[in-house]
Specification:
Elements lengths: L17 E2 L13 H16 L4 E7 L3 H9 L3 E10 L2 E11 L10
Parallel strand pairs: 1-2
Antiparallel strand pairs: 2-4, 3-4
Length: 107
């Protein structure tokens, strides 16, 4: 007899989480503002608010933001479409778990 748990889809990424994001005006890009913003948000989320995890939704064509998120340790967990200016735009969904959490804790 097979366990039905074998066929259950992985829904670990469906847990509630705080979404982080920032918008940098095009003329201000490539000056480190996105990196500075993400650093401050992650520090607050994990050290001050003690969140278990955070997620970000980043447009697939925003290579700089995807690289910045990866540099901070955010990992892709899926894709979705979000509406921008009336158009469905593909986004990567990235996650980061709290590196300050105790090993074996609920993350």
């Amino acid at each position: 007899r097979r366990s039905s748990a074998q066929f259950a889809p992985d829904r670990s990424h469906c847990r509630p989480a705080v979404s982080l994001g920032c918008i940098v005006r095009s003329e201000k890009r490539f000056h480190g503002f996105g990196r500075e913003c993400l650093s401050a948000m992650l520090s607050c989320a994990f050290a001050r608010l003690e969140l278990d995890r955070v997620v970000s939704f980043i447009r697939l064509d925003n290579v700089g933001a995807l690289q910045t998120a990866a540099a901070f340790g955010m990992k892709p967990i899926g894709r979705c479409e979000r509406v921008h200016a009336g158009q469905a735009v593909p986004h990567a969904v990235l996650e980061m778990r709290n590196p300050l959490a105790a090993p074996g804790g609920i993350n």
